[in-house]
Design brief:
11 helices; binds pyridoxal-5'-phosphate; Aspartate Aminotransferase, domain 2; about 35% helix; Aspartate Aminotransferase, domain 1; 5-stranded mixed β-sheet; disordered N terminus
Length: about 375
């Protein structure tokens, strides 16, 4: 686990992103050292120092963990980050390291589609699971006696937003910890620890790394007992990132601000174009001034993400729309430089209409993408 650099909070997001986690320059060494492939490290005599066995630590993780920490909690040296093999590994590490039989946890009822499986597993271990929708701060009503509140804001795929600071205050007043899934916003969009949360947890598979070529997850939290338990969980379960993935992730973070600014601006342009179309209902993008989430989002988010959600009248229309798009691949996941979209209901998990589309806006030229989406809407109506 690696702390963040104190004082980094005075710099801008782009400046911080390109330098995040870089070691002090060493003559004849590269700016970002290459991936260290090692199952074990030389360790004569006593076990001292950070690197002994590859499931516990790796210098490539250390650089990446510092980078993520500098973005999630700039200027804080009491905060650490741990990277994991995937977002689910990071989420499970927090939930399963903090909760015991008899504890109660509050999960979103409209969150990531694997959460129902997590819920069943927690219940099998004797944890009481309560759930509430993300919008309208409904979690407030089920907080009494809970040990942990799990927030996903904006939620995937419905893009609802809750008031993180308000929920954190209510949870802390009742002695509960708060974790926020920050996947959709990225640390350039939202910094949950500044809003009072105990953990910011995310899938680095999505916009954080942005090329759709690796899986990664992380947990950022205040140093102390809770983070020590998360670290121990990583060692026990061994859901660790490969050095190559960790290095690629770090390399990708150098362009995070460019990708996020471009993709999010285009997402707003796409949402504005979609809003003119009569066949579309349930259009959601937290950056649209009249979106139901906008007011709360604008208080706690600095950027609104690259995902736009909407519903076409029928399943057949949605399938045709996806088929005739040229610049948007029919694929799951989101946040990549190449636009993707999918009919979310095909997975069966989310409580969304048959024609519900989750569109992830990439880094293409905005005019091209908007034109392609409008053309595909016309073509799919025929
Ligand atoms: C994708 C996603 C996850 C899971 O991340 P993986 O890297 O696929 O394990 C968790 N939460 C949200 C909000 C996600 O979108």
């Amino acid at each position: 686990m690696s702390g963040s650099t104190a004082g980094a909070d005075r710099t801008g997001d782009g400046t911080r992103a390109v330098r995040a986690g870089l070691p002090e320059p060493v003559k004849h060494e590269p700016t970002l050292p290459g991936p260290v492939f090692a199952a074990h490290f030389h360790l004569p005599g006593e076990v001292t120092g950070p690197y002994s066995y590859g499931r516990d630590d790796n210098p490539t993780w250390t650089h990446l963990e510092r980078a993520i920490g500098e973005l999630e909690a700039p200027g804080r040296d009491d905060v650490g980050t741990l990277v994991f093999a995937s977002g689910m590994a990071a989420i499970s590490a927090v939930l399963f390291s903090q909760l015991r039989a008899g504890d109660a946890v509050v999960l979103p009822s409209d969150g990531y589609q694997v959460l129902p499986l997590v819920r069943a597993q927690l219940e099998a271990y004797g944890v009481e699971v309560r759930s509430a929708p993300t919008g309208g701060d409904a979690q407030l009503d089920v907080l009494d006696g809970a040990r942990l509140l799990w927030i996903e804001s904006p939620s995937n795929p419905g893009l609802d937003v809750c008031d993180i600071r308000r929920l954190v205050e209510a949870a802390h007043a009742r002695g509960a910890l708060v974790a926020v899934d920050n996947t959709l916003a990225t640390p350039l969009g939202q910094r949950p620890l500044e809003l009072g949360a105990d953990f910011s947890v995310a899938s680095g598979t999505k916009q954080l790394t942005g090329h759709g070529d690796l899986l990664l997850g992380y947990v950022t939290g205040r140093d102390g007992e809770a983070m020590t338990a998360v670290r121990r969980w990583r060692k026990i379960v061994g859901a660790v990132s490969g050095p190559m993935e960790a290095w690629l992730a770090h390399r990708s973070i150098a362009t995070l601000h460019l990708r996020v600014d471009r993709q999010n601006a285009t997402a707003l342009a796409v949402a504005e174009a979609l809003r003119q179309r009569p066949e579309i209902s349930g259009l959601r993008y937290p950056g649209l001034p009249d979106d139901p989430s906008h007011q709360v989002a604008s208080r706690q988010m600095r950027r609104y993400g690259c995902v736009v959600s909407f519903t076409l009248p029928t399943r057949a229309r949605a399938e045709r729309f996806l088929e005739v798009l040229h610049l948007v691949e029919d694929a799951t996941s989101f946040g990549g430089v190449r636009s993707t979209a999918e009919r979310r209901r095909r997975w069966g998990g989310d409580a969304v209409p048959e024609g519900f589309i989750r569109l992830s806006v990439g880094a293409e030229d905005p005019e091209d993408l908007v034109a392609d989406v409008l053309r595909a809407l016309d073509a799919s109506a025929e």
